[in-house]
Write a structure and sequence with these properties.
By secondary structure, the protein is an alpha+beta fold. Helices cover 37% and strands 12% of the residues.
């Protein structure tokens, strides 16, 4: 009897599965299982434990107390005693117990229960500073408000955040926790939006420079990859040659060299210090190179030689203006190149395709060097296009063009579509 009933249920379930389109299949199966009394719907969360409490000094203190003689339950302190501040101390060492260093600061940890006046002890664990960073975007809206987390009218005007740009690690850290925090605030009626961020863009990671190496066995000869006793020998880029889809040792082409870029870390010694790059090439070169490396969302490999290339481009830009800008009418061809660049850079910047926007500016400068003259009307708007990418040199050029105020207050150039029409084209004809 049981086997027959089971077989009948299985046949009904299979008929249900094949008869329902994919988007509704899961929902219908759940409903069928619940109707038969053999299953029920349940939401499962992968995040089991937030580990929100920390046994250290630094962090937001929990506004909780434990009255003496009570049942051990925590009691929240009154709202008029918020925010609860950390005590000033120079003793940050561990307490010698599982509790944080706050446990040994008697003047802070020992307090009274505001409701009864009975002695009480403060919670000594601290929050991991997420309690502040998880909703900082809300406090930016209304930082001076001492009566509320954020003014309702200001929150409704500014929220949600239009664009959130963060690394892939943010998807499982700050982004996830900020959404937790925001949804709790939404349920409490503090915020008016269910989601804090309207759009998410995760930029790719920048890896260290490519490292070249090969393996040497215990006998001093080149070893295979699966030799457990082999040691890694690193070589410089100057010691290798490209061969096919790989690399070989220049001094011995029979030795294949492994080329690989790793995540920057102190242990590998491949960290690029931005201060060193700025010192040698300038802040604009560093900024421009990072945007020119490739699509924003892709993982990219650092190359100091790439910084040198961008630095040379900025030098060409400077020399193009240094050679002299004339107050003469611009030709239609010059204006066509300018407005094609305006349209391209505007579109690519808006879509966060910065590398192709920079490429368009490079094409413009190549065209400028072919001109017989350099009209102000054709060059001045280009400085405004360059400004978000290389702000320091753009401000310098703007000043040299005779402007006394910063270009930051200038409107963004607009492309004139009528100037983008090509009057004549070369059409090859074969007879």
């Amino acid at each position: 009897m049981i086997a027959a009933a089971l077989l009948k249920c299985t046949a009904q379930w299979l008929l249900l599965v094949v008869s329902i389109s994919s988007p509704w299949r899961t929902l219908k199966i759940i409903e069928w299982l619940e109707a038969k009394g053999i299953g029920k719907r349940q939401v499962n969360y992968k995040l089991r434990d937030w580990l929100f409490a920390r046994q250290r000094y630094w962090g937001e203190p929990f506004p909780l107390i434990y009255p003496e003689g009570g049942d051990g339950s925590a009691v929240a302190i009154p709202e008029d005693q918020l925010p609860l501040m950390l005590p000033e101390t120079d003793q940050f060492k561990p307490s010698g117990t599982p509790e944080s260093p706050l446990a040994v600061i008697d003047s802070w940890v020992n307090t009274t229960d505001p409701a009864t006046g009975a002695p009480a002890r403060r919670e000594t664990s601290t929050m991991p500073q997420w309690a502040g960073s998880c909703w900082y975007y809300l406090r930016f809206i209304d930082p001076g408000n001492s009566a509320a987390l954020v003014d309702k009218a200001k929150e409704q005007y500014w929220m949600p955040v239009d664009l959130y740009v963060g690394g892939a690690e943010h998807a499982v850290l700050h982004l996830l926790y900020a959404r937790f925090w925001h949804k709790v605030l939404y349920d409490l009626g503090v915020v008016s939006t269910k989601e804090p961020f309207g759009r998410l863009v995760s930029q790719g990671m920048i890896l260290g420079e490519v490292e070249y190496s090969y393996l040497v066995g215990a006998d001093g000869k080149v070893a295979l990859d699966d030799d457990p006793h082999a040691t890694v020998v690193k070589v410089s880029e100057a010691e290798v040659d490209k061969k096919g889809d790989g690399y070989v040792l220049r001094s011995d082409p029979s030795v294949r060299v492994t080329a690989r870029a790793h995540k920057m870390s102190k242990s590998r010694g491949n960290v690029i210090n931005p201060d060193d790059v700025v010192q040698e090439f300038g802040g604009d070169s560093l900024r421009l190179y990072e945007m020119f490396m490739g699509p924003l969302r892709d993982t990219k490999v650092w190359s100091t030689r790439g910084v040198e290339g961008v630095h040379r481009f900025l030098a060409r830009v400077y020399r193009a203006f240094e050679a002299g800008v004339a107050d003469v009418p611009a030709s239609r061809e010059q204006l066509r190149l300018l407005h094609a660049t305006i349209r391209k850079v505007s579109t690519e910047t808006e879509e966060m395709r910065f590398n192709t926007g920079i490429a368009a500016m490079m094409e413009f400068i190549n065209g400028v060097y072919k001109w017989d003259n350099r009209p102000r009307a054709a060059l001045e708007p280009f400085v405004l296009l360059l400004a978000p990418y290389a702000p320091h040199i753009a401000e310098e050029l703007w000043s040299r063009l005779g402007h006394s105020c910063s270009l930051a207050y200038e409107p963004w150039p607009t492309a004139d579509e009528s100037l983008l029409v090509v009057d004549t084209i070369n059409l090859p004809v074969q007879v």
